[in-house]
């Protein structure tokens, strides 16, 4: 048979004559968040601005690899004793230990009592997915409550894992702040045992976080209703610039002796985006339970990817365990967080200078990488079309993608959208 | 302070058994015997029984570090340069499926992750369709399909009487399966048996698959490791593609590039049109996004650098031949030792006929346990030994263990 001949109508394995077995597979739409970058890349305009995905950019608009990460990588590559053998199913042990300490505090009783199982997963997404799959199999209540709004990928992760997804009120468009009453009401109505997704800090997409007092009330409500907290911690260190401060919400829950899950990502705070480094921790009542839970989590992982990738986790482990490198990291992390805070101030000032109608103080009140501008889909579309500003259609902009040079262009775009677009 | 619930909500969670394959290494590590031998997991070892990082891999990593590349998110489908070279490695550069853009390639988490993406695609778009897997097959295959909720059944493959391929049984079972089933085939170096169909048998397998409108689904984890030649080891896949068939192929670089822990592989779907391939790729992305968002960069860059650079690629081929060659030597020595030591005259030649990293010894579960308990030889309970973990120096000891287990334990 001539290997070069074109596919003839009668040749193939396919249910139709000459058809494809994939004939019924439709084109999926681009991912709403990652699709923004796809669209941005296609745009030839020299003034285009990508404020879509939450990836940190320098003042020069360039991606950043932290110095301490480069140093760690150099050490790895130079170490002749390093091998690439399969990690255990739960990942790099050292990484897991250090991640738990970072999240819960080095002196956390839960860690000392061995009540925490920590497994390496594929960044935040992978940690959430593995945790959700475990819950869908072993937790009696398979409903998870997610805040309205939340990161676009949350709902899909939990649904595919086998959980049923409900929402609780979170963002108040009128105040551009937290709808605390609504949150408490909705969680009060959740059935006992229901899982509650909480953003540990720097809520994505709104940037609106509860105060510590509000966290305490949330904690009391969750514990009194017997709900199970599942934290998504993707910005530890990025929100306030302090790793410990950004972990307060999680630690508050662990301190009361109760159980919870936490998904950690090193994508942003260590700039390890593409290495896919993260960890899932499950804090249990007893060490015995934690050990059994870990064995079952392994059964979720093995048929999904067998064992996790070594490179990123090794970088994290080197940095976390080495005093000097850890300190260097905190300095670089604070610098990133500070630059974002400065961008917030500059954007706020620029809009005020233009007399842009509306109250824009939420820009400086919101926390973390993103600002929930309050712009509607029509205004967003206008900004993309006329000003080549790329953002997600919910009005979320990544402050990390802004620089002093580009703030004026963005301010012009927002001003135009608010004053001209219908 | 509100009191938290007193009993664990996970109190009812039972302790899961250790993984039958990966658990072997755990048990091996716990053993203090000086004679211990790990023939469990298929990870290549040197003659000194040390793990091996390929020279080309070290070179690639150095290059990557010098270039100071960034760590931005890959697209959901993975590194474009990797996807390109992995397709060319599998099908041959210039192959019509590539030229005609009928191939959807998505970077996956090694073989497991790539199989899982495909399984999820099958579950979503071919509800109720079965995957036929060989009896026996790699232990994790059924877990992957179970978790993806894809029904599976077995086709006869290994014939213990001949310690060879039950070809008639295989054809018969594939024929008997409902039309439009997916048939999981090992591209080369069948795991765990090491028994591969001949080229003529591959043609007949393709015939029956076409007859029944089944969809071939290849697991290619050992390209280059079976015969030592990357092209020769891809011939089964290329044979099917040349017939114009639509097919799926999961690839892994764990073994052939020694990138085990980097988790680098790909799922390839050959479709009858470029339009179908584009649609399929978009749906694979839709499956990957809520699983891990986008795949890890490090291993992908290593592969892209090695396979994409002619000098490094040639160097890789040489290292590949050395690794495959060492295993062939070990096979020979094991065979020689067994033949010399076995007074019962058993025919051990099946060891020489089997291909790849593994040998299916024919030892039973109880006999395999004897290997471990008495001889500190760690292997999987199905009688599979990984020759990649065997040195020439240890062949005689292993031969003693096998002969003892085979003849003295029942």
From TrEMBL, chain A:
A Pfam match: Aminotran_1_2
Alphabetically ordered keywords of this record: Aminotransferase, Pyridoxal phosphate, Transferase
One function term, GO molecular function aspect: pyridoxal phosphate binding
Cofactor: pyridoxal 5'-phosphate
Catalytic activity reported: L-aspartate + 2-oxoglutarate = oxaloacetate + L-glutamate
Entry coiled-coil feature ranges: none
Aminotransferase class I/classII large domain: residues covered: 48-414
GO biological process, one term: amino acid metabolic process
Enzyme Commission identifier(s): 2.6.1.1
Domain of life, source organism: Eukaryota
UniProt xrefs under InterPro entries: Aminotransferase_I/II_large, Asp_trans, NHTrfase_class1_PyrdxlP-BS, PyrdxlP-dep_Trfase, PyrdxlP-dep_Trfase_major, PyrdxlP-dep_Trfase_small
SUPFAM superfamilies per the UniProt record, alphabetical: PLP-dependent transferases (SSF53383)
GO cellular component: mitochondrion
Misc: In eukaryotes there are cytoplasmic, mitochondrial and chloroplastic isozymes.
Subunit structure: Homodimer.
Family: Belongs to the class-I pyridoxal-phosphate-dependent aminotransferase family.
Official protein name in the record: Aspartate aminotransferase
Native species: Vitis rotundifolia
Lineage per the UniProt record: Eukaryota, Viridiplantae, Streptophyta, Embryophyta, Tracheophyta
TrEMBL record, chain B:
Gene Ontology molecular function: L-aspartate:2-oxoglutarate aminotransferase activity; pyridoxal phosphate binding
InterPro entries: Aminotransferase_I/II_large, Asp_trans, NHTrfase_class1_PyrdxlP-BS, PyrdxlP-dep_Trfase, PyrdxlP-dep_Trfase_major, PyrdxlP-dep_Trfase_small
Domain Aminotransferase class I/classII large span(s) in chain numbering: 36-402
Keyword terms, alphabetized: Aminotransferase, Pyridoxal phosphate, Transferase
Cofactors, names only: pyridoxal 5'-phosphate
SUPFAM superfamilies: PLP-dependent transferases
The protein's Enzyme Commission number: 2.6.1.1
Gene3D superfamilies listed in its UniProt record: Aspartate Aminotransferase, domain 1, Type I PLP-dependent aspartate aminotransferase-like (Major domain)
Keyword Translocase appears in the UniProt entry: no
First-tier enzyme category under EC: transferase
Family: Belongs to the class-I pyridoxal-phosphate-dependent aminotransferase family.
Quaternary context: Homodimer.
Other comments on record: In eukaryotes there are cytoplasmic, mitochondrial and chloroplastic isozymes.
Protein name: Aspartate aminotransferase
Naturally occurring in which organism (per UniProt): Vitis rotundifolia
